[in-house]
Structures are given as C-alpha cells and as structure tokens.
Amino acid sequence: MTALLQVEGLTVDIAVPAGTLHAVRDVSFSVEKGKTLCLVGESGCGKSMTALAMMGLLPKAARRNARRLEFAGIDLAGAGRKVVNDLRGAHMSMIFQEPMTALNPSYTIGNQMMEVYRRHKGATAAEARERAVFLLGKVGIASAGDRLGQYPHQLSGGLRQRVMIAMALMCGPALIVADEPTTALDVTIQAQILLLLKDLQREFGMALVLITHDLGVVARIADRVAVMYAGAVVEHAPTVELFAAPQHPYTRALMECIPVPGRTLPGERLGSIPGNIPALIGTVTGCAFRDRCALADASCAAEPPRHLAGDHGWACVRGAV
Amino acid sequence: MTALMEVAGVRRDFSLSRGLFARARTLHAVDGIDLTLEKGEVLGIVGESGCGKSTLARMLLGLLPPSAGRITLDGVDLAALGRRKLAARVQPVFQDPYGSLNPRKRIASIVALPLAVHDMGDAAYRRKRAIDMLERVGLPARFADSYPGQLSGGQRQRVAIARALVMRPEIVVCDEPTSALDVSVQSQILNLLMDLRQEFGLTYVFISHNLAVVEHIATRVAVMYLGRVVELAATAEIFASARHPYSQALLASVLTPEPGKGVPDNGLGLAFPDPLDPPPGCGFNPRCLYARPVCKATAPAAVADGAARVACHAYAPLYRKEFE
Amino acid sequence: MDGTPAIAEFVAPTHRQILRRRIFGHAGLMFGTLLVVLAFAAALLAPWIAPHDPYFQDLSARLVPPIWHERGTWAHPLGTDNLGRDYLSRTIYGARVSLLIGFSVMLVSGLIGSTMGLLAGYFGGRTDMAVSFLVTTRLAMPVVLVALAVVALVGGSLGVVILVLGLLKWDRFAVVMRAATQQARSQDYVAAARAAGAGTGRIVLGEIVPNVLPQLVVVATLEMASAILLEAALSFLGLGVQPPLPSWGLMISEAKAYMFFSFWMIAIPGTALGLLLLAINLVGDGIRDVAAPEGRA
Description:
The complex is a heterotrimer.
Chain A: E1 5-16, E2 19-31, E3 36-40, H1 47-55, E4 62-65, E5 68-71, E6 74-75, H2 81-90, E7 92-95, H3 99-102, H4 109-121, H5 125-138, H6 144-147, H7 157-169, E8 175-179, H8 187-204, E9 207-212, H9 215-221, E10 224-229, E11 232-238, H10 239-244, H11 249-257, E12 306-309, E13 312-315
Helix pairs in contact in A: 4-5, 5-7, 7-8
Chain B: E1 3-16, E2 25-38, E3 42-46, H1 53-60, E4 68-73, E5 76-77, H2 78-81, H3 83-89, E6 90-93, H4 107-117, H5 123-136, H6 153-165, E7 171-175, H7 183-200, E8 203-208, H8 211-217, E9 220-225, E10 228-234, H9 235-240, H10 245-252, H11 293-297, E11 303-305, E12 308-310
Chain C: H1 15-24, H2 27-44, H3 46-49, H4 87-123, H5 125-139, H6 143-154, H7 158-168, H8 171-185, H9 188-195, H10 200-236, H11 248-255, H12 264-291
Helix pairs in contact in C: 2-4, 2-12, 4-5, 4-7, 4-8, 4-10, 4-12, 6-7, 8-10, 9-10, 10-11, 10-12, 11-12
C-alpha cells in the first residue's frame, strides 16, 4: 500500500528578533489511506507547526523546506498556490482546537459549510444545502436544517466542534488534519467527539493526522504515533508497540509522568522530567533532549543514530532496552 | 477526623442582565451544596465546565459571599471571621499561572504580599521568608527579582504555590492547578503539592476536570453537575463503583493510555443543559440513560448508599423500585 | 552529562535589556522625545535664550521679515511682528504658555477622570452607573462652546483657561481607566491579593494601578496635546489668554490681518504648534508600544 501523505525531511525555520527559531527539524512520517497518525508532544515541540506546514498555512515569517512533501502523488512543495488552495478544503482539510476562532462569527454555519462545497465542487446552493444537512446529521446534530441558520456563537463548544468536523467533511477529503480538536472540551464531550471521528473515518475511509499532547487520546485513537521533542520526531511506532515498549528516554519519561490507575498507586510520586523545554533559537547540535535526560553522557553531543526495528524507530545513542 | 470547614445549604446566584429593558435572568451557579472538609484530607471536586466548581472555590476562599446557606471554619461563619483572619488559614492556587501573578511585580514581592498584608516583620524579613519559601517549592533564589514574564508556566505555578504557603495556612484551595501545564510539568507540580501536604500538614480542596489526576491525589471526591454535588465518596470507592449515572458516564469518558481499548461510548446524548434554564427535576435527566418520569418531576435529595452519598432517585428507598 | 548544552546557549535578555532595546529601537518615540525635550528646554530657559524681551515694542522695526528673506537681519532671526516685537523671543515664550496649559489641564483632568474611572471599574454596580452617567452627560456638552461661554462670562486668563479645560476634558481618562481597571480587576492576581486579605486600597494602588499606568500615560499625552490645541483655538478666537501674553494661538490670531503680505507671521507659530503636537503624540504612541508587557504582546 502506498502512503497517502509522505513527509520527508521537513524543516520549518522562523525568523524572530533574537535569531532563527528552528520550529521543525528534519521531520519524516507517512500516513496511509484510512489510518490515523498521532503527533504527540508537549507545547513548543513543533507539532502544530508541522501540521500548518503540511497544509501550507504557515505564518509569513516561517520558511518551509522538505526533501519530499507528497499528498496522493502530488508534490506539495513544488506545487503552485492555486494547486495547494484547490487541494486544501477539497481533498485535505483541517480542524482546529478552538472552533470559535476558526469559524467566522459573522456568517451562519450553513453559509460557511455551503461556501466550501460550492467553491470546490461547483455545486448549486440546493445541493450544497442538502450535503450540509446530511453531514450535520452524521455528526449527531439534531434538526440540522434549523442549525444551518445559526451563528457560531449560538452553539455550545461541543456543537461548534461537531460543526467544524462536518465542515471539514463537506468535500469528502482523503485527509483530515486535526490540531488538538478536543483539548478545549469537557471529558464527556471529548469522548463523544473522538468516537464520532473514529466512526466517520471508518465510514468515509479518510486518513487522520491528529495532533495532541494527551497520551490517553493517542492510545485510544491512533494506529501509529510519532513522538516529537524540540522540533524533531524522537520516536515513531505502531501505537500498541509504543505503549508496550517505548524506547526513547523522552517517551519513557513522558509516560512515567501521568498517573495511570493500576500502574501508579494513589499518592505515589510521579515521574518527572527536570528542566525546561529548550528555546529552539540558535544552532541545535546532538540530541536535543540530553540536557534533561537521566541517561545522557558525552556521546549524546553527537547526532543521535536512528534505530529501526521492524516499523519501530527511534533516535538515541542507546539501542533497544 | 474533625470537620475543619463546613458548607451547609450553600447557594450562589448570579443575576445576568440582558440590556436595559430586558428582565435579568438568574444563574444558579451553585444550587444547594452540603459538604464537610476534614482536617488533613484532599477533597477532590470534579465536574465539567459550568458545573459551579470554581464558584464554590471562590466561596470557600471568601471571595464571593454565598447567596444562601453558610460556610463555617471551625464553627465560625466566614463572614464573621473577617478577611484577614480567613486569609491566614485558607489560601488559593489558581489555574492560570499567567493571570494569577501580577506581571508588573517582582517574584519576591508577589510571594511576600500576604506577609505585607498581615504586617509581618520589616521588608527584609518578608523578603527572606519569601525567598525561603521559593526555595522550598523548588525555585532558586536568583529568581527573586525576576518578573513573571521571564518564568515558564511551571515556574510560575511554583511561585503561586509559594505565595499560598508563605503564611502557613491550613487549607489550600487548588482550582485546576495543573490544567494549563504540560504533562511533564504537571507531574512535578503534583509531586510538589503532595510533598508540601506532608511537610506542612495541609488540607487540600483540589478542583479538576482531569479524573486521573484527582484519582491520584484526592482522598475523597465530590462529583458536581449543574451546581449540585451528585455523588460524594472516598476516592477508591467512587472509582471502583460509581453510583450516580453521571459519575459513571464521567468515568467512562476517561481515556487511560491503554491502546487497543478504543474510544469508549459514554452513552450520553447531546442534550446539553442550559445552566440558565436547567431542566425540571434532576438536572441530569435529559442526558441520563435511566431517567424515569420521577426524575423529571422532582429533584433528588442526597441519600446514603453504602459508603457514598448519592443524589439520584435510583438510590432513594422511595423510588428504587421504579428503576428495577 | 557532557557539559555542552544541546542548544547553543540562548541567553534570555533581562527585563531592563528588553526595555532598553524597545525604547531605543523605536524611531517615533526617540524623535518625539527629542522634540518634546527641546520644547521643554526652550520653555524653561526662555529668559536666557530669547534674544529680546518678548514684550518690547520697537515701532521703528515693524514687520521685519525672517533671516532667510532677503530683507531679514540677524538682529531679529525670525523677524518682528506688527508692533515690532522680536518674533523668535515671542515664539520661545509661547512654548511656556502652551506647555504650562497643556500640563496643568492634563493634571486637573487626569486626576478627576482617572479617579472616576478607577472607582467605576473597581467597584462596578451603582458606582459604575453613576460614573457612566456623568461621562455621558459630559460628552453631551460641546467642549469648545462651553469653554467659550464660560470664558466670555468670567473673562479670559491663564488660570481660567486651565480650570475650564481641566474641568471639561476628563472624559477620556474616565472611559479608558474604567475599561482598563475592569480588565485588570478580573485577573486572578487581584483575586489572589484579596484572598491574601489585602484591603481595597492596597489592591487598587498595589495591583491595579501599576497595570493600568501605561494606558494612563498614553491618554495623558494625547490629552495634553489636545489641551494645547484647544488653548490655541480659544486664544485665536480672542477668548483664551489675553494679550500681550505670547501664546501661539494668539500670535496666529494677531497675524491673520497680515497673512497675505507677511505669511511667516502665521507660519512660524503654526509650525511650532504643529511640531509640538506631533512630538507629544509620537511620545504617547511610543509609550504604548514599549509598555506592552513581555511574553504576552
């Protein structure tokens, strides 16, 4: 099976007053049709920038480079603005963390949903409306016809995120990139939204790139996981494999940090990672995690070798544990 | 164990004005809560946004007076105790470490503020106490003259904790203290809170929407829904066998990092309640899988069921057979 | 650990370094400050730097043109007016009047307005309603007309102009301070201070005022510029400061009869007025840019 999305050697550099911020450093991954990849990491690890770089939505000050950036056989890096604009929305769409800022407050949701469809598919208003009602029903919104006339502020947070998902589905995309889609929501609604995404994925067969900081979400929804730290992917593996045998010290430390019923005792000390996430301004040499790593030694100052065991890869001087 | 703080029949209403000529609507943010806080315990309060948990926290801190009912500390009504006496015994840690520190003051003077308010010692003494406390919470003294803008989220939350503890209070009300932090920083703050509890013999009210964190740190848990406590039990009890249908759905929604289990179906519908216009009877009835006619008619009172207190008709002797 | 950091040391600049960089990197603020400092220096040092007595009339040397004119002389670099008074000296002394009025009006109106705004923003409720009512009432009055009426009634003088403008121009202070205070008051650091037992005075002065100060300074500079302009307008209409006091507005007024033959008479005080207003506004804008707190721009 060939991958739907292939990213190789993606870098994003942002010019800031103090120098160059290396937000994404040599990131590679691929997503197959109908599968889910999670990019997981803490704030500032470059996961959102990676998503924006894929979608061609980077801020002006950012510069993107990639050895390969291919979506359904189309070279996104070399493609012109027009090609990318046509792909975006129609074949690849994005769901943001805060739907209130992603939806235009001065248009009704029906207006916004139909606009996408009519622009990309050249459909009539009636067809677009029919499709919008159909999809709002799919995402579990009752009396969808009436909802079309509502404005974003008239909906609750959970409903807004459902509308965002329905809107992302309007043109039947092959790929959806979701950046922390449930972080702003309550836990019961988070579970409902993720379940919905999973069901829709099964039904429509689209691939999903989900960006999150929540290892619980990752475990429950991903087929593959890429763990990011300081702008780079430090480990990637099938989900079951990653949770069963994490290899990179950062992945292992991160998993120690969260209380898990059955594994950690109530009131027990949790693992922690000393120090802070580095500011990625200036030149990065060797392993970026070594300042905070309990296992670091002199050999970590060199570029860490990449190990690959089956389809489980990690970048550390240490081999498998 | 003795009850340190007691919350009896507390309600808090907010009047929301909708322009000059519209009639103001009333929001019952907290709608009749009875709770006790035992000395030395960690009382976890869980619930979703809008359930009134932060309003309750502000009332416990004396920042908001209850509209009805009373909150007492060692039997003395908070209103009668006076703000300074209360402040010496009950202190807050807020969620947003960016908003809770004054951006135009230096760290040492932020931490020393409670001491200054209580006229304790001279400036040099207060500064020394503040720096001692900063070091105790894991922040080196060199940060004393920094501004909050120069610190990371975790460091700021340490400053907020140092400020809360500098007066050596008995109770610390933590309102989502780790929600704004990264996972690796969250665990540091949780460890610190647990260490400090040991060292200073603190009692915590720990408010959070993160159930895994609450299970980890709390000794007793109150589940809130639409301004009411729907279930109250020891942590192990509630996580092993939740009784209220809402508690069950809440626990079912927790995504533990166990791959292969898939995304759970918590069985909740889409009938989100409007806090301004709560449904009649039990507030949870429109989303409840087990709702019976009685649930739409009357609001359930809390009843004891084994080691827990539950506000659900299914556990009330009078209605129990309707649910069989 | 091997000692070499993973990422080439990036030293976070200190608060003071950032501030210094922001201030000196701001061209508008630098230029505005330079002009304002020059104007203040001219006003303060007027008796020493003015070449002549601004009131001395030399009827034998009336309407001497400035030095760049072919008939100009170094005795009167900016020429003389219709009564033979040295124009450079009068312009320098005019800065005194403008700055004195601008500064005093700003102090009077700032004190009234920011107190009202702080009270309304902090206490809300009835206090807020009362202050909002006063602001609305005040906004319903046209400043120039009321000022004209009052001055016409009690007679124009420096003191009267300051008092009238000061009592009329507090509205923007009140509106801005009210909004800024409301915003600051809702922050958790205010809740934390209250939970620490701090009283209203300590919270307002210690927690809120430092956070609304930058906005206050910005409004103050803009209001100062506006007061200077109003004084000039009143004086131009003959209802501001009275002759022979050298006010730029008055000088323009006196020059209007000679405008077609001695254009410089109107252009020199006009340029001085324009430059001063520009400079003050640049300083205000600059302070607003520089004072945005770090990290949360």
